[in-house]
Design brief:
The protein is an alpha/beta fold. The protein has 22 helices and 22 strands. A hairpin with a 2-residue loop joins strand 19 and strand 20.
């Protein structure tokens, strides 16, 4: 649609259009068959969604280019939806779609086009043999990557100007701003160039369960497989089979979780025998079971959002034959519930058809040793914790990762913890096919050089760890839990020597401080399922993280949402907390936070990149006991001092 410049100027009114911005607006209207009023509506929506609704935002050329990118993505998304539904016809195709179908590219035409855009060494680089460029990419050769042109018609040229969001990112004004903090009154931790390396030990390797990463099979399954170990002989761990899970494995895992909590609850409160809540009880009794959400109309678990009217209590096989009974919480003054939660509930079942809860008892906690009770005490150290994605949503230049590495080199922490995804499957350019590099090539070309720079810039005593993610495209295991990156895979991705990997989830001890990491957005999954009334912990986001501590499980929600269905019940031992952590790290797209609750530091560092803008990361410092005593935070008694009292934390804007 051809648009007159006067119509655009009249429609935008007080929002003055410069000549270059006016030309871009005319181009958008012509390309996407839009009227001036339709374009102005899109501009208003852009100002509200991307610029916070500020009245001072002017339609400059850069802003109009950002708007054009959003309109183009929406147009392509609708085209894909019409194509997948089979409803698109030739008469419905827009001018842009028809033009793209006419585009045919080959080596000569693309090189001819690029020869007119570049000169000198860049022109020679385009003529580099394909085999040489491919080897350079796989080895992480940065010069080979810079010289490689992306030959997809929709791919941005490597010689093009930075994207509008990248330009805006480079001009941001909130660099280094502290968004949240904990124990800021503690004095800064002094840097020591000759500090001893942080002692990091994996708690899974020290656990009594030698098969924490192998399939847990029942005795009947082991007999069927012919696993006849000799007395006293230690069974060799089996390989992880993440796409092999029998139907009874999940129910057996759930039953064991209920039984373990029931045994500890009896011991904690001195209860002689737990009651079967499905039987009538005229007196108040205590029962242990699992919260389930049942659709009363269809009888399907998890089919509707949980409410206080759709709560059921599921028993274990021993305590109640696995039966379920409606749970009435109208008389309960305080609760916080979600599907899959193990609870100890006190109440009555007067008619045998409904269990009326009067209160929910606090579940027994894992043992939490104070500083004085730990064998080697707690040694001071600092850490930087960041979570992916590490690049903006309209490019693969990884500007936030580069700035994060610069900050880490400047502060020289003892531990750097980088949580995936590094190449996210949700990146728009990968979802719409506008990037022709393989994920492993992107990692080797864009991420490994930054890791090498980080390793060279930090002292030799500093430890660098990568943690995989379920959204990671450079990793073969898309389930949860996930093993650590293997040495062969690290070599293929060009990861430099001195950069190590942990499993997901990870439970480690760093200089005597226990750290648990659940690199899956369990908080976002829980926030949609939780129902509560006057909970003890009123701050909702830390309360969601505290559910993991209370349940002793790093993914207690059951059933999981469809987008995260790969929760392996056969690997449930990997999801159980081995001991009470001092720091729990749960990265989430929800708002970042750091809180201390019952001697546990709950941390969501946020994402390093928030689509078209920079995100946040966390900086932790574990101080010596003397530093906390000088601030009056402690009484000087090591038996009453926990590492949470010695930890200061900051969430910093990249």
């Amino acid at each position: 649609m051809s648009i007159n410049a006067l119509d655009l100027l009249k429609t935008f009114g007080s929002a003055k259009l410069e000549s270059d911005a006016l030309a871009e607006c005319q181009s958008i209207c012509q390309t996407f068959d839009m009227s001036a009023s339709e374009l102005f509506i899109r501009w208003q929506a852009f100002v509200i969604n991307q610029c916070g609704g500020s009245s001072g935002v002017l339609p400059t050329r850069d802003r109009i280019l950002e708007l054009r990118s959003i309109v183009n993505q929406e147009h392509e998304r609708r085209a894909l939806q019409r194509g997948s539904a089979g409803t698109a016809t030739s008469s419905q195709k827009t001018k842009l779609t028809r033009n793209r179908e006419r585009m045919h590219y080959d080596k000569s035409s693309v090189e001819g086009l690029l020869q007119g855009m570049v000169s000198g060494s860049q022109r020679d680089a385009i003529k580099t043999p394909q085999s040489t460029k491919r080897v350079g990419l796989l080895k992480g050769n940065a010069s080979a990557v810079r010289s490689r042109a992306m030959f997809s018609p929709k791919s941005p040229s490597v010689f093009a100007e930075p994207s509008p969001s990248a330009q805006r990112y480079s001009k941001r004004a909130n660099i280094g701003r502290t968004e949240d903090s904990l124990h800021s009154e503690l004095p800064p931790l002094a840097q020591q160039a000759d500090a001893a390396p942080a002692v990091v030990s994996d708690l899974y390797q020290r656990a009594a369960d030698a098969d924490a990463m192998s399939s847990e099979e029942s005795e009947d399954e082991a007999a069927a497989d012919g696993a006849g170990d000799k007395p006293g002989q230690r069974r060799a761990p089996k390989r992880m089979r993440y796409m092999f899970e029998k139907m009874g494995t999940r129910t057996e895992t759930i039953n064991k979780r209920i039984e373990r909590m029931a045994i500890d609850t009896k011991a904690e409160y001195g209860i002689e025998a737990l009651a079967n809540p499905t039987y009538p009880h005229q007196d108040s009794v205590t029962a242990v079971g699992r919260i389930v959400n049942v659709n009363l109309n269809e009888g399907e678990s998890g089919s509707t959002p949980i409410t206080s009217d759709t709560l059921f209590l599921e028993t274990s096989r021993r305590l109640g034959n696995g039966r379920r009974i409606p749970l009435d919480v109208r008389a309960t003054p305080s609760f916080s519930l979600f599907p899959g939660q193990i609870v100890a509930v006190e109440g009555k079942n007067l008619k045998g058809s409904e269990f009326s809860a009067s209160q929910f008892r606090q579940l027994p906690r894992l043992q939490h040793a104070s500083v004085g009770e730990r064998e080697h005490g707690v040694q001071p150290f600092s850490a930087v914790v960041a979570s992916g994605p590490y690049t903006l949503s309209d490019n693969f230049e990884y500007e936030p990762l580069a700035d994060l590495v610069d900050h880490a080199i400047a502060v020289a922490p003892g531990v750097v913890l980088l949580l995936g995804p590094f190449v996210s499957e949700t990146h728009p350019m990968l979802k719409d096919g506008s990037m022709d590099l393989q994920p492993s090539e992107i990692f080797a070309a864009k991420i490994s050089p930054h890791l090498g720079r980080l390793r060279e810039g930090l002292p030799a005593s500093s430890r660098i760890y990568l943690v995989p993610s379920t959204d990671e495209l450079c990793y073969p295991y898309t389930c949860y839990p996930q093993p650590a990156f293997g040495p062969d895979l690290l070599g293929q991705l060009g990861v430099p020597e001195g950069v190590e990997s942990l499993s997901n989830p990870a439970q480690v001890s760093v200089n005597g401080v226990v750290v648990a990491v659940a690199n899956i957005d369990v908080l976002f999954h829980l926030v949609k399922e939780e129902v509560s009334r006057l909970p003890a912990l009123s701050d909702r986001l830390p309360r969601l993280a505290w559910h993991l501590i209370e349940q002793r499980h790093l993914y207690p929600l059951s059933p999981p949402p469809m987008e995260c269905a790969g929760i392996l019940a056969s690997q449930d031992a990997k999801l159980r907390l081995q001991t009470m952590p001092d720091i729990l790290i749960t990265p989430s797209q929800l708002k970042h936070f750091v809180r201390a609750h019952e001697n546990v530091v709950l941390l969501n560092p946020g994402y390093s990149s928030m689509r078209l803008s920079g995100g946040t990361f966390a900086k932790l410092s574990v101080h010596p006991q003397s530093a906390a005593e000088t601030t009056g935070a402690l009484l000087g008694d090591p038996a009453k001092t926990f590492p949470a009292d010695l930890i200061s934390a900051e969430i910093i804007r990249i």
